[in-house]
TrEMBL record:
The keyword Metal-binding does not apply. The lineage of its organism: Bacteria, Pseudomonadati, Pseudomonadota, Alphaproteobacteria, Sphingomonadales. It comes from the Bacteria. The gene is prsK. Residues 485-687 form the Histidine kinase domain. This is histidine kinase. It comes from Tsuneonella aeria.
Length: 702
């Protein structure tokens, strides 16, 4: 069969198929009543297009009847295009565009006259060439104007209207783009390309198909999204086409220079292509790298990362009495990302073994008590990779994970992927996702997102574990602090008992000493009982009743305890009645005096000085011991369990300050290395207590 006859037969079949498609879609639109304004115009355009296809199949696309009907067809599609502007009311605001529409219609109305003149005087080759050139150029201009209207239609539509206009705009774009290219090529070559003309029947069929999709009730939700495989293959074909086009252009350009450069260039391109195909294309690693990078940078991502992050944050941040525990919420947040039907979360127990801590929609999760072997946990911590269990079941072993995956994960067909939760290079949890309803393989985007979300979940879990550890440590710290205070008070009482025992060896026969010893023993017993009663006070201090206290008498009483031992002397003893807790003030004073005694040389006295300034009473404890550095006074003196003395508890000064503060007073300190230390207890006088209570700033200024 000659080539021309073959193309004619193909054109007949395609035109007939286009006519059938247009008629069927027109009937479909007719049966589906709709208030949309472009529906009658679209039906009319489809019917006219079907008539044109039948005419082109019967007499050829270049016949006079076919060309006249083609003008009517184009006019109908321009009207459809204009009516589409009415979907969101913009037909009332398109005064600048109406002149363009009118010009397009006028041109199409003039073209039948050119066709009739060509038919009447076509015997003259010159006139026929002019008529052909005018027809091709005018229809090219009409196609350009129509494409401008299509662009304005879609670009200026609201987001909601775009969803409705997507498929009709695509149909019109296909139609007018083919018209533009077909008549532009005809004008340049001054002839109708037989091959392309035979394929004109495909365009009405494509337009009708797109309009049929637009007639669907769910057309606004339908999107043409090719699969990753199709996208990659399309990209490959595009690259091959670009390569061949580049080779052709370079070889043609070099051939203009003369000689055999063009032939040499073609051979060089062929050699490079064959070399690349032999060495690189069989490599699965190279193909995988090309695939991942192509999908990552050239195609739309599977996930809407903003939506995923908002949903993840909402799930993790869910609060309230009815909210699931954090491990359960973490499992759900991870499962939502991949649409998994369930998830379990494994966290380390006290012995370090990973056990089931939370689950979501996985009733009776088969995770045993020791759900994750130490070797598998170490592998996940070291590699930090997401493991697809289907690959493990298929025998794939990329990094040595096949021998380490626990048996219960292999045996459970619901288990789909294992995600390590790593925080600062430390494995804090392991999540197992169930298989989604639609089975698929994980790709680079899944791996990247799951790793990122796993890292964020790990930080949340680590923060919760740290918070629980701090709460537990605070409880133990409170208990230890109470015991430390008790031990410190007992230590002071033991020191007094030891001093009393040493003095008894020398003054046992002195009645006055025995009398004082009896009083001291009674006081010590009372202090021990009071100490037991005050154990709760250290953990939760409560304000004690303030009573008038003779500061001078208390200073004399404390100094008397050290009679016969380390010298404690009163340098001044002004009458001074202050408000405070007698037992607490004596305890604080004993702490400070005992510290001064321990810091002083055996024969170096400790001085007590009691003074009054009319508003506050002041008792100073002065020693000439080793003293303290300014840094220690600032950072360590009043910090519990920090001491400058060997074997000291480091809570004497802290407890004394807290006791004095609890009475509304303050404890001042001044120390110099090698010179000694001066502590000063300042308390409000009884007469001025009410005034100071109402004006607390007075105490601070003083």
């Amino acid at each position: 069969m000659p080539a021309d006859a073959a193309w004619s037969l193909l054109g007949f079949a395609l035109n007939l198929a286009g006519a059938v498609a247009c008629a069927l879609v027109a009937a479909l639109l007719w049966r589906r009543a709709s208030p949309r304004s472009e529906r009658p115009a679209a039906i009319a355009a489809l019917l006219i297009t079907a008539v044109w296809c039948v005419t082109a199949a019967a007499w050829g696309a270049g016949s006079t009847a076919a060309e006249i009907i083609e003008s009517a067809r184009n006019l109908a599609w321009v009207v459809v295009l204009y009516r589409l502007f009415g979907n969101d009311g913009r037909d009332q605001m398109l005064a600048p565009i109406r002149p363009l529409v009118m010009v397009l219609c006028l041109v199409e109305c003039l073209l039948p006259l050119v066709t009739l003149l060509d038919a009447r005087f076509g015997a003259d080759k010159g006139l026929h060439a002019v008529a052909f050139s005018v027809t091709a150029s005018l229809r090219t201009l009409v196609a350009v104007g129509a494409l401008v209207l299509v662009h304005n239609l879609y670009a200026g539509a609201s987001p909601v209207a775009r969803q409705i206009l997507r498929w009709p705009a695509a149909a019109l774009t296909v139609f007018w783009t083919f018209q533009l290219n077909f008549y532009a090529a005809a004008w340049f070559t001054q002839s109708m390309p037989a091959e392309v003309s035979a394929l004109r029947g495909l365009v009405p069929a494509a337009v009708a198909s797109l309009l049929a999709v637009a007639a669907n009730a769910r057309a606004a939700d339908l999107k043409l999204v090719p699969s990753r495989a199709v996208a990659f293959q399309s990209l490959s074909l595009a690259l091959i086409g670009l390569y061949l086009a580049g080779m052709l252009l370079v070889s043609r350009w070099l051939s203009l220079l003369g000689g055999d450069l063009g032939r040499l260039t073609q051979v060089a391109f062929l050699f490079a292509a064959v070399t690349a195909a032999v060495f690189w294309l069989p490599s699965g690693k190279v193909r995988g790298w090309l695939r991942v990078n192509a999908f990552k940078h050239l195609f739309q991502h599977r996930y809407d990362y903003r939506a995923e992050w908002l949903r993840f944050t909402a799930t993790i941040g869910r609060a309230g009495p009815d909210a699931p525990a954090l491990p359960d919420r973490a499992a759900q947040a991870l499962a939502d990302i991949t649409d998994s039907t369930g998830a379990v979360l494994l966290l380390p127990a006290d012995d370090g073994a990973f056990t089931l801590a939370g689950s979501w929609q996985w009733p009776g999760a088969p995770a045993p008590g020791n759900a994750c072997d130490p070797e598998f946990a170490a592998f996940l911590e070291r590699g930090g990779m997401v493991i697809e269990l289907d690959d493990v079941r298929a025998g794939t072993d990329r990094f040595g994970e096949a021998a380490l995956v626990p048996g219960w994960l292999r045996d459970d067909p619901k288990a789909w992927a294992v995600i390590p939760l790593i925080h600062f290079d430390r494995l804090v949890g392991v999540a197992v996702l169930a298989r989604p309803p639609i089975a698929r393989r994980l790709d680079w985007e899944d791996f990247d997102l799951l790793k990122t979300v796993g890292s964020q979940l790990a930080s949340f879990l680590a923060e919760q574990a740290g918070h629980e550890a701090l709460v537990e440590a605070a409880r133990f710290d409170d208990f230890n602090r109470r015991i430390a205070f008790v031990m410190h008070d007992i230590k002071n009482l033991a020191s007094q008992m030891s001093l009393l025992a040493r003095n008894a060896e020398r003054h046992a026969d002195n009645p006055e000493f025995r009398k004082d010893m009896l009083v001291t023993l009674t006081k010590s017993a009372e202090k021990l009982n009071a100490l037991l009663a005050r154990l709760g006070r250290y953990g939760a201090p409560s304000p004690s009743a303030r009573l008038p206290i003779d500061l001078a008498a208390m200073a004399q009483r404390v100094a008397g305890r050290y009679a016969g031992g380390h010298p404690v002397q009163l340098t001044r003893c002004d009458p001074c009645i202050v408000l405070g807790d007698p037992d607490g003030l004596e305890q604080a004073l004993v702490h400070l005096v005992q510290n001064a005694v321990e810091a002083s040389a055996p024969a170096m006295p400790v001085y007590l000085d009691v003074s009054c300034d009319g508003l506050q009473g002041r008792i100073e404890i002065v020693d000439a011991g080793a003293g303290m550095t300014p840094r220690f006074v600032r950072e360590g003196l009043f910090k519990p369990f920090v001491s400058s003395k060997t074997g000291g508890f480091g809570i004497g000064a802290f407890e004394a300050r807290e006791l004095v503060r609890g009475m509304g007073g303050r404890l001042d300190v001044l120390s110099r290395e090698g010179l000694g230390t001066r502590f000063a207890i300042v308390l409000p006088l009884s007469a001025a207590a009410e005034f100071i209570a109402e004006h607390p700033r007075v105490n601070e200024v003083a």
